[in-house]
Amino acid sequence: MANDYSEAIEKGVRTMLWGEAWGEHIMAHHCADIEEEDDHELLMSVPDEAYDAAKKLIAAYEEANGVSISTLYERALAADEADETVDPEDSEPDAFGGDLVFMALGTEMSWFDEHAEFPLVVPTFDNSELREIADEICDEEQGAA
Q1: What's the burial of 60, exposed, middle or buried (CB within 10 Å: 0-12/13-18/19+)?
Q2: pLDDT tens digit sequence for 52-62
């Protein structure tokens, strides 16, 4: 039976979706400093909506590729193991999930930057809902200060 990596991958997806949303907010509004403990706690406090967004993005990958997210990760592992230039020990499921986020958002960062290529259909994803939540959280925090 194959391993189920879905929980670890989902953690990577939701953490990166929220991190991207919070980072975009900070860059646009210059209202937080990630080095400050309170601001860092806001980043690490992943809202419930990020769980929903992660499930949507994972479902989009599964639909686009016709297999489970765990199977996609197993394909990534197999590709890394077959490529002598890649260390399979550097392949973590949460990092895979995070890189899938970057790819779906259309950034220049990719799993394939440091890992072997394998067939992967990358859906597009709109993270504006989480960006709006980051704006709301910041507005609430600024109002409380």
Answers
A1: middle
A2: 999 999 999 99
Phi-psi category of residue 30: left, alpha or beta, with phi > 0 → left and psi -120 to 50 → alpha: left
Task: Give residue-wise pLDDT tens across range 22-33.
Answer: 888 888 877 655
- How far apart CA 82 and CA 3 sit, in angstroms, is 19
Alpha-carbon span 44 to 46, nearest angstrom: 6
83 φ/ψ sector (left φ>0, alpha ψ -120 to 50, else beta) = beta
**CA pair distance 36, 17, nearest whole angstrom:** 21
Euclidean distance between CA atoms 46 and 70, whole angstroms = 23
Where are the chain's structural domains?
6-144
The model's pTM is: 0.85
